[in-house]
Inverse folding.
């Protein structure tokens, strides 16, 4: 099954299918039922249902004519002031089809809009309130200028919790006639980090390899090492077995094709479970942040990870 069809197939069709955002669903649903709503701003991490919520709003309001009354623009592609002055205004100045008195313009990833475009959008939102409502979606609301935020009702989406992720896994695997182990479910929960889109991507890739999805399949496709391998590397280091930890790290990175930035993030998660004093754990997490910063600035990944293991060995010996 092609990727686009897979994503569309499992996109929520109504409010009841949107997982993990009960309070937001309840408030937005009341707007839809009254056929009147303010401008909306959806902010939160990727894959948490912001775009799906906007499309569900349009479908519930306009039914079969939702395509004619709904304009979706991705600000990552079209981020200049001309988009606001031309496309948005042309769509907004005409009346809606049907008994709902307004159309919907959905600006996805609007934190990528230039400041000039955001300034132009301020007046547009005011001028066309009688014929149009705006739904803005972004990952970082701090990148949206205050005048736009004040014109919208702001909803902050949160990452999906474990139970919601497991429900989605079970729905997809049942529909696609797949079998999946409990350990594979746990691996998917850990890997997705509450991102439904990332979850569906790895599920689709796993399904392409076979009908049985195992923990090993998930980790081989997710560009992540098994947590127990990362923990073993750290335990060797804090036990002053630096050479063994270094060898295990190299083997793990090569066998999974891992980037150093991914390894240090996994190490940071596993530090809490190490048999160290609270102070030593705090110092190690601090070293993680320093190592991650250096790698993001262009330092050699393996040298930085090796240096981190050396610091872990010194801390373990002192501990």
């Amino acid at each position: 099954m092609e990727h686009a069809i897979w994503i569309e197939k499992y996109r929520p069709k109504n409010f009841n299918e949107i997982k993990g955002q009960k309070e937001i669903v309840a408030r937005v649903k009341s707007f839809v039922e009254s056929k009147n709503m303010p401008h909306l701003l959806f902010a939160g991490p990727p894959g948490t249902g912001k775009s799906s919520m906007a499309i569900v709003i349009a479908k519930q309001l306009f039914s079969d004519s939702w395509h004619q009354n709904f304009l979706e623009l991705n600000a990552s592609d079209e981020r200049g002031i001309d988009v606001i002055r031309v496309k948005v205004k042309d769509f907004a100045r005409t009346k809606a089809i049907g008994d709902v008195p307004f159309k919907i313009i959905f600006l996805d990833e609007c934190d990528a809009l230039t400041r000039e475009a955001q300034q132009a959008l301020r007046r547009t939102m005011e001028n066309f309130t009688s014929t149009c409502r705006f739904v803005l979606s972004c990952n970082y609301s701090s990148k949206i200028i205050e005048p736009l935020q004040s014109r919208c009702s702001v909803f902050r989406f949160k990452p999906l919790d474990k139970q919601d992720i497991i429900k989605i896994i079970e729905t997809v695997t049942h529909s696609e006639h797949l079998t999946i182990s409990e350990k594979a479910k746990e691996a998917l929960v850990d890997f997705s980090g509450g991102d439904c889109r990332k979850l569906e991507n790895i599920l689709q890739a796993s399904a392409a390899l076979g009908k049985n999805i195992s923990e090993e399949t998930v980790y081989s496709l997710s560009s992540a090492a098994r947590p127990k391998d990362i923990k073993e590397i750290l335990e060797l280091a804090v036990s002053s077995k630096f050479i063994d930890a270094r060898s295990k790290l190299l083997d793990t990175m090569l066998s999974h094709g891992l980037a150093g930035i991914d390894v240090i993030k996994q190490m940071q998660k596993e530090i809490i479970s190490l048999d160290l004093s609270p102070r030593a754990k705090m110092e190690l997490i601090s070293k993680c942040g320093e190592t991650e910063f250096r790698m993001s600035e262009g330092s050699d990944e393996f040298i930085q990870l090796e240096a981190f293991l050396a610091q872990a060995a010194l801390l373990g010996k002192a501990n």
